[in-house]
Amino acid sequence: MSQKLFRRTEVEALTGLSRTTIYDLMHEGRFPRPVRIGKRAVAWREADLNEWLENLEAA
User: Fold this and answer.
1) Can you tell me which residues the record assigns to a coiled coil (predicted)?
2) Of 5, 24, 31, 50, whose CB neighbour count within 10 A is largest?
3) Angle, CA 22 vertex, CA 33 and CA 57 arms, to 5°
C-alpha cells in the first residue's frame, strides 16, 4: 500500500505556512515530523498532514 508523500514546497502550499513556521511548529511538537526519503531529503506523509489539518479545523 503506497501513500502519497509531500515535499516541503507542497506542504507550504497545502497548509499556507512558511518554512520557518513549519519547522517552529515541529520543534514545539505541534506539526507532524517528516520521513527521510534520501540522504538529504525529507517528505511528509499525506495521512499525517490530513490528520493535522482535521485537528486544526476542529479547534
Assistant:
1) none
2) 31
3) 90
The domains located in the chain, with CATH, are: 5-58 (1.10.238)
Q: Is the distance from CB of 34 to CB of 22 less than 8 angstroms? A: no
Note down pLDDT in tens along the chain; length 59 residues: 678 999 999 999 999 999 999 999 999 999 999 999 999 999 999 999 999 999 987 87
Cell matching residue 51? 490528520
Nearest to 32 by CA among 14, 19, 50: 50
- Give CA 18 to chain center in angstroms: 11
Closest CA to 7 of 21, 25, 22: 22
Length of the chain: 59
Which is nearest to 48 in space by CA: 36, 25, 32? 32
